[in-house]
Amino acid sequence: MYVCRMKNIIKHDSSTPPRLRTLQRNGLARRYLFSALLIALIPLGLMAIVYDTQYVRAIEKVTESGTNAKLSGAVNLLRTFLQERVYELEGLADSPEVLEWLSSAEPGDEPSSILLDELRQQLDSPYIYGVVTKPTLFDEPLWHMTQGLLKDVSWRALPVTPFAGSELLGPALPISDRPGWVVLRLNPTGFNPLPEAWVGLVIRLASLTEQIDDLTLPGFKMPVIVPPQKVLLNSLGNLKVSSYASEKDIDSSEFIPSWHIRLLWLGDPLLGPLEFARYGLIFLAVGVAFGIIVLSRHISTRLERQIAPLIEGAERVASGDFDTPLGIKDGTAEIGYLSFALERMRLRLKRLVKRMVEIERRAILGQFSAGVAHEIRNPLATIKTTIQALSKKETDPKRQALMEAVDNEIDRVNDVVQLLLDYARPRDAKAGKVDVLNVVKAVKILADTVAYRNGVQLVLVDHSTVFSFADSFQVRQIVMNLVMNAIQALEGIGGKVVIRIRQQGLSVYISVIDNGPGVSADHLSHLTEPFFTTKTNGTGLGLAICKQLAQANQGALRFQSASGEGLTVTLQLPLYLNNSSPE
């Protein structure tokens, strides 16, 4: 009744979303498809205009107007690139660890971990292969880089070029299995007495040569760098074999001594390849547009298939169905995150409704219990007093036995009323140090007589003393209720009830195990619900009160059973620590 009421509240308070077929008209998938078509067709329409202008611009680039200015810009770009590496090298050379290593290291010494870390930081740059250090007392420098880069290289034979207070060593020309590189080295300040000490950066030759890539004009001109060895290095840092020299080749000024740029003339372009490229670009644009259309349609269809279950699931939750999962097993990351969020929302709403139902049930039960206590307990007290007075004056044994039976039934009714009051208005736990073993032993002494009368063997497994931080009275009440339930489950058939205590981590566990008929899986999840019972004369409040008392003591109740295999009930309580507090 309470669950239906809460579901109806949520159903009427939530706005129901429109149907999926109405959303499809202005859906995200449809708009995504139209946007993709527009994006694909606009480049296709502009392709002819762009191509016609590109041919004229290509002819203009071939002319020598502006070529010298571009060469000057490339020269400045190369100088700037090298100057930036000089600044980096100066920062490294001024490091105290580097200065100490260069000045005081002796042959056989190894760099410290701090120095190595500082040198490795230089490797974060995409332009650097490694670092070279040459302490004063070393005959050969230490190359902190992949040793394969030194293959077939004698560093002393490399040309040396001064630049901005440093020296450029190289280049080491590339071969088939090794790229080219240059070393920018610097004598650190403060080493006037030690001129043989230096530190250097091993720079990728391709990082230097790629600075002239903007001068490339396919089919017309190719820029190369001419180093001191008088070879040609293209923009990729590879050797360029020139079969002939043209009068139209253009040399720049030297950006450092013995280094300059040369623009190689490749010849006149042919009209045929350009026309072929024109139609190729058009067909490529059409193919790209068609591919985008197909891909967009596929993505939009898949998006609709993934979103539809989410909308249906949200509608089910809005209508009050919290038990049916959304059922999204696969999908994109975004849809997966959304599905996970909606599923978590469904579970939280389910717990919230259950909690609200429990609160409402307890409030109603409290009002009911107060009425019962007022309307029943007072008349019961009067009846009990009257029966006891009449019993004292009665001489007939049969009538006296009947009055005692009435007196006992009054006590039983009073116990039921007390259970209602205990559940509706539980007493706050007064936590303290509890000797769990003593509590369980006291319960066993009280329950032994009942167990013997019902043909049940009650066994307490030996355990060392362990202390819990809880309310001693409430712990005793819980254990007594669990033991009596286990004995009652074996009533008429006999059996064995085992009480076991164990400590694990920061918790104490008290388990009551019986070998009775057990509880079915359908009933197991309802054992702690108020008024749920499998006994013919039970009230259904015992385990509900036990659960309530366990939670009041920061503990929990757990049930394990299978039909015909007995029932295990475990009470978990917090372990007593020296600094335990009521919090």
Structure commentary:
With 583 residues, this protein is of the alpha+beta class. It has helices at 2-13, 20-23, 28-62, 67-93, 96-104, 113-121, 205-209, 271-318, 333-393, 397-424, 436-453, 472-489, 521-524, 542-552, and strands at residues 128-134, 142-144, 160-163, 166-172, 181-186, 198-204, 221-226, 250-251, 260-265, 432-435, 456-460, 467-470, 495-504, 507-514, 556-561, 567-574. Among the domains are: 341-424, Helix Hairpins; 432-574, Heat Shock Protein 90 (2-Layer Sandwich), CATH 3.30.565.10. The chain starts with a helix and ends in a 9-residue tail after the last strand.
- CATH C-level category of the domain at 432-574: Alpha Beta
CA(first)-CA(last) distance: 36 Å
Helix content percent band: 40-55%
* C-alpha-based Rg, rounded: 45 Å
Dominant shape: elongated
Largest sheet: 6 strands, antiparallel
The portion of residues forming beta strands comes to 15-25%
Strands, count: 16
CATH superfamily of the domain at 432-574: Histidine kinase-like ATPase, C-terminal domain
SS content category: alpha+beta
- Spell out the helices and strands N to C: HHHHHHEEEEEEHEEEHHHEHEEHEEHHEE
Instruction: Based on the coordinates given, report the CATH architecture of the domain at 432-574.
Output: 2-Layer Sandwich
Strand order of the largest sheet: 2-1-6-5-4-3
Low-pLDDT runs of 5+ residues are 1-24
